[in-house]
Amino acid sequence: MPRALNLEEIETAIERMPADKQLRILEKIAASLRLKSNSRQKRTTGWDDLYGVAKGIWAEDAQEYVNRQREERT
């Protein structure tokens, strides 16, 4: 099994590559970081983070809306 490269060896290898290959590596790293960032954000969002988000969307009190919807079902 081949040994893993250390950071300096990776940097040196990348510096020796043509610019187009360096950009491809950069794009892959950026995409990977975006995915990790998005998955972390999803895990840390809680109900407290959503408090007040919909304020002003409805022209009536939320409880009145819910009560009316329940009445219309019966």
Notes on the protein architecture:
Helices cover 70% and strands 0% of the residues. The chain has four helices and no strands. By secondary structure, it is mostly helical. The chain is rod-shaped, with a radius of gyration of 25 Å. It has one domain.
Main sheet: strands, sense, barrel: none
Total beta strand runs: 0
Q: Give the N-terminus to C-terminus distance in angstroms.
A: 69 Å
Tell me, rounded to a whole number, the average pLDDT. Answer: 84
Structure classification: mainly alpha
Secondary-structure element series: HHHH
Question: Number of DSSP helices?
Answer: 4
Low-confidence stretches: none
Q: How many structurally independent domains? A: 1
Instruction: Report the C-alpha radius of gyration, rounded.
Output: 25 Å
Q: Strand-residue fraction?
A: under 5%
What is the 3D form?
rod-shaped
Quick structural summary:
With 74 residues, this protein is an all-alpha fold. The protein is 70% helix and 0% strand. It contains 4 helices and no strands.
Task: For this entry, give a set of tags.
single chain; about 70 residues; mainly alpha; 4 helices; about 0% strand; rod-shaped
Secondary-structure map with pairings?
Blueprint: H1 7-16, H2 19-44, H3 47-50, H4 62-73
